[in-house]
Amino acid sequence: MTTVLFTCAGQRVDIVRAFRAAGATTIAADVDPLAPALYHADQRALVPRVEDPSYTEALRALVEVNDVRLVVPLTDLDHLQLAGARPLLDGTVVLVSEPETIERCLDKYLAHAFFEAQGLGSPPTWLPAELPAEPPFPVLVKARRGFGSRHIYRAENRAELDFFLRYTNVESMVQRACRGVEFSIDVFCDLDGRCLEAVPRTMIESKGGESIKGATIRDDRLIEFGCAVSEALRIIGPANVQCFREPDGELQVTDVNPRFGGGFPLPTAAGSRYPELALALARGETPERRLGEFREGVVMTRYFSQVILEELGGSLEPVQAEGVPGEA
Question: Over 70: is that where the pLDDT of 168 sits?
């Protein structure tokens, strides 16, 4: 079986489980011994913080000792470190994009400029020093490097805009608020940046920037748009494309996260087979494109769960079945 190392595993139990179900041997790594995903993998490992100089070496040791064939980051935090570590992990597929792509996705203003240059729809966006005299309200004050819908403020007029620009404590940009319907498109690309599958879903409800309710839809324009955006960026592996369909029908991309999205369980349930595609890449295969090979109308609604641990033999171990209080 192919051994997969998940970095910054955190709470992404859904992804670890899906790869196990696809036949992988899973290793979850995190700095936090209470990260839930650690306890759903075949093996778990504690590693230094991402910014620690020894972080990459710790991952390299895990790869070497366990014959890891695929490395999958589960947050945005270590993408640049992993991209730089490729030479050290020779023979192991590292499922991250190249540094230029990562930087574009991290910096939302750079991403906007790139999309405009590529002829891809993107809402009008300005740096604070370049604002027009009469911005098209409503607008959003957004962190240039943000995640989880943090540091985003909606301004209905100039007074509110000036207030939020003074109020925010992070480097920001100003973007015209979209007026249409929001969608997410979960894509998966091969090692050459060719989009293999794109699964659009509705955004019924989200909290903290993460989808908790949604449904898959079959929409050829959204599928084509997801492919165009991901291939223009030269995404490697998974990404989540967030966009709006405006009242005039134009599609506008507002964000791209080059990792498995928070709504990962939905395209998985709909038959995206993203874990299987990733494992095929790790085996050196060249999967065929499978655009549209998913089920529409699959609905997801999410809930909280937990892992109950006790210290046994000097380490924390699961002692209770997930979601079943009192059951050992």
Answer: yes
